[in-house]
Amino acid sequence: MAGRYYEKRKLSSEIKKNEDEDGLSVSEVAQPEDPFKGSAPIPEERKSLYKRGKEFPVDGIKNKKLKGFLRNTKKHDKAAVNQAARYELLLTEEPGYIETAEGEATWEIKQREIADAADITSASKYFELRLDQFGPYSVDYTRNGRHLLIGGRRGHVAAFDWMAKKPMCEMNVMEAVNDVKWLHTENMFAVAQRRWTYIYDNQGIELHCLKRLDQTLKLDFLPYHFLLLAANARGFLQYLDISQGQIVSTINTKCGRLEVLCQNPANAVVLLGHYNGTVTMWSPNQKKPLVKMLSHKTALRSIAVDQTGNYLATSAQDRKLKIFDVRTFKSLHTWSVPAGASHLKFSQRGFLGASFQNVVEIYNNPCIQPPTNPYLTHKLKFPASDLDFCPYEDVLGVGCADGFVSLLVPGAGEPNYDSFESNPYRSKKQRKEWEVRALLEKIQPDMISLDPFQIARVDMATAEQLQKDKEERLGFKQESPKFEPRFKKKGRSKSGNVEKRKRKVRNEELRKKIRSEAEKNNANEAAESQMEANVITKPLEPKSALNRFKKKTK
Amino acid sequence: MKVKVLSRNPDDYQRETKLDIHKVYRNYNPALHPFEAPREYVRALNATKLERVFAKPFLASLNGHTDSVCCMCKHKQRLNTIFSGSCDGEIRQWTLTNQRCIRALPAHTGFVRGITCAPDGTTFISVGDDNTIKHWTTDALSEQSHNPLNTIVTKTLYTGIDHHWKEPIYATCGQTVDIWNDERSEPVKVYKWGTDSVNSISFNPVETNMCVSTVADRSIVLYDLRSSIPINKVILKLRSNVVAWNPMEAFMFTAANEDHNLYTFDIRRLDFASNVHTDHADAVLDVDYAPTGKEFVSGSYDKSIRIFPVNGSRSREVYHTKRMQRVFTVKWSLDNRYILSGSDEMNIRLWKARAAEKLGRLAPREQAAADYNNKLKKKFAYHPQIKRISRHRHVPKTIYSILKEKRTIKDSMRRKEQNLRAHSKPGTVPHIPERAKHIVTTAIKDDDIDEEDSLV
């Protein structure tokens, strides 16, 4: 038996000699030298996109097992970053662009020209819906960019698949409509009507009438938390959990009419713009704003936060457009615009859409450097009433007083989507599976804070407190909390006697405290007097007018 | 003017027929995946909760014995065969694939004290209260299966037996530790240190010449077959019942002690336990290592089985049933999947080593999902909510109250020691670490070794 064990071992070692480092068998004929040994190098900018957090220095750790474990983890992290960076090769689509001839400027190009120059499917994405009866329209696209919801001020609400031009529902709610918003899928949407907020099915059937969300001016939806936000005319901000149907939090912002609302997609914090030029950030866990920053000196007209959660664009009555860094609250760029932009929206690739009365301007990457000229412009007949970029498509939807127009913006949409996040081409079964999985992963509203990665970090404050508690428990005697005198028999534990004993202990502790403090004071005074004694003070000389001619001695 | 507007061909993104799988496109850009940390946390929470939901470790009960099962032995070559001996002298051979007994042998009159299997898997040897050592064949279908191949009648009673992992040598323990050769009927070598009886013996699977025994004078004695005298001895406060060697680390062993603890030692440093494993509520009767060398299982007199990690002091899992009585013997199967326990209840129970694991062949997606969930659980294991859920186990009332009492006793003793230290001259009450507290002494201390070398 022992012989057989040794035999096996020899065989495997013999095999290994005929393999090269990758495990592929190598023939005995001499192979030519590989001039490009190893794997292809990856540029640092690509890798930096996939890195998360700072590198942890492993050298200072004394515990060998922990050091080895952390080193191993670091190796795995690097491999993961490299793999993610290499995967970019496999992305199939490229973003859109406009290449102009010499002398031609992109902002002079009309939509009709773009539609003619692009292919036929793209040309069909530029369309106009003339609906002049029912007032200025609010616009919303679903998260996967497939379905479109428009709501006219005079009550006309319509939902349709805009790519296939297939209508889903169309109705008139017989009331003023302030805002419309899709919920998590294309099955439900919320309409902020004159008195209350209603939730409808995609067939137009009224599912819920939310009387607590009254006089809502603006709606928004937090997709990963399943929270519907409603900003009130009376200054209330309400969060409704649509999976449970309960209002999570009602906040009285005390800031007047809330008309300017925007969501930070990276950390689910709500930004409100006020008439005094301040931008406040709210979370459902606190009744006071998380951050209050003064962005303009005049009333804010609109705000927008980009997809990565890094930049904030604000526009106010003072005809300026400012870009702020959301994390440091510093103003990055400012430029003048013809009027305060009534609507601002960021696209997935960082394009900023702004509407100034009846002109819609789109800026190309305004966060990196302030634009001298817009990328594209479009003139409407009536002022724009809402803007929304379509996710994963190069399309900007504009709602105006006489209907809806869909504009082509080459390069605005993210070309490669992730099927597990949002899939524009999903089937009914895929949508159902996605919905169940999303509900299982629903994040609780009490995790909303300015830093979304907080939960993965070490809670240093609690750790320190625990460490202190442990030291106290194991090493040192705790400070005696309350003195409970022992019960004595034979009538010696009458209440008067117990109180006397307690008083004795209390006075003794007080005396100890005073004694120690007195000692400390004495020690301090002694130290001070020592210091004074060391300092040599010069005797004061009588002042005379001739002092200025005397030589100054050090 | 050249313009490119994003346009996708739906045929590239949708499946062709109903029989195909759906097309999946990935983009790992973090901008498309917000809230990574909170979503991972929620997934970890769900995974922990589901682990508790699916934690159903009991698989089967092997019935057949008519008295409590007091010793078990794994077949060294086959995964599905075990031998068990009971207190009425019967030895049964079980096949775990069908969970049936394939052979019942009336081996001894009196207790079967120990069974061990030869490393080539052809024979097994049993030792009993009738002063005999019997060699049997493991093949249940041969003609010789009902009678022992060899019977050796001895003068003294033997209480334990173990086989060398490579050579045809086995050792028995009783009054002394005797080393036998397969062919001889007299012990080849005899080791004796002190006058007390030796309870159990165990050979090292890696460093095959070493073995360790537990003696009734609360000591654990180390032997090397190449020397004529035992090497070293460590004396604990209470007696150890069984010792198991770590199959991956040649120099580590774990002793199951009467004081409700298990002690892991490094043979190079016997004066300081490498780890003290506490969680049992009564004497620990048996211990066996997993083939990975990272965990071990222990059975105790308190009717429960606990699984401990090697480098931790608290158990990660506890198995108990109302029907299972005092657990005399536990074994961890060699494919790292199952745990066998033999108890006073006259049957052997088959458990899963990881209670929430799905048995059988997993599809690659299932395996990927299980791996992902396990990694997430490890990542967020220290979060209070997740820790609370993953640690939660129901434990019988007797064990719960005993452990509660032990905790109170421990806390009050610690408090008293602190008070004593606070009111004594600094330095008179030293801090003794937990790992050294339970050890009385060792025979050969580190300083002595240098002296010995100089003598030689």
Number of helices of chain A: 8
Largest sheet, strands/sense/barrel of chain A: 4 strands, antiparallel
* Widest sheet: strand ordering of chain A: 2-29-28-27
Content-based structural category of chain A: alpha+beta
Question: What is the β-strand count of chain B?
Answer: 30
- The dominant shape of chain B is globular
- The first-to-last residue Cα distance of chain A is 98 Å
Task: Explain this structure.
- Chain B: Keywords: Nucleus, Repeat, Ribonucleoprotein, WD repeat.
- Chain B: Residues 353-439 form the Sof1-like protein domain.
- Chain B: This is Sof1-like protein domain-containing protein.
- The complex is a heterodimer of chains A (554) and B (456).
- Chain A is of the alpha+beta class.
- Chain A has eight helices and 29 strands.
- Chain A has helices spanning 2-17, 44-50, 64-87, 111-117, 120-123, 428-440, 460-474, 495-534, and strands at 97-99, 127-130, 137-141, 147-152, 156-161, 166-172, 177-182, 188-193, 197-201, 206-210, 216-222, 227-232, 236-241, 246-252, 260-264, 269-273, 278-282, 291-294, 300-305, 311-316, 320-325, 330-336, 343-346, 352-356, 359-363, 376-379, 384-389, 395-400, 403-408.
- In chain A, the strands form seven sheets. In chain A, strands 2-29-28-27 form a four-stranded antiparallel β-sheet.
- In chain A, a hairpin with a 3-residue loop joins strand 12 (227-232) and strand 13 (236-241).
- In chain A, helix 2 packs across helix 3.
- The radius of gyration of chain A is 35 Å and the shape is extended.
- With 456 residues, chain B is an alpha+beta fold.
- Chain B has a domain at 58-352: YVTN repeat-like/Quinoprotein amine dehydrogenase (Methylamine Dehydrogenase, Chain H, 7 Propeller).
- Chain B has helices at residues 10-13, 36-53, 364-379, 384-391, 397-422, 434-437, 446-455, and strands at residues 2-4, 58-63, 69-74, 81-86, 90-95, 100-106, 112-117, 123-128, 132-137, 150-153, 160-163, 169-173, 177-181, 189-191, 198-203, 210-215, 219-224, 232-236, 240-245, 252-257, 261-266, 275-278, 284-289, 295-300, 305-309, 317-319, 327-332, 338-343, 347-352, 439-442.
- In chain B, the strands form seven sheets. In chain B, strands 15-16-17-18-30 form a five-stranded antiparallel β-sheet. Chain B has a four-stranded antiparallel β-sheet with strand order 2-29-28-27, with no helix packed on it. In chain B, strands 3-4-5-6 form a four-stranded antiparallel β-sheet, with no helix packed on it.
- In chain B, helix 2 (36-53) runs parallel beside helix 4 (384-391).
- At the A-B interface, helix 3, strand 1 and helix 4 of A face strand 1, helix 1, helix 2 and helix 5 of B.
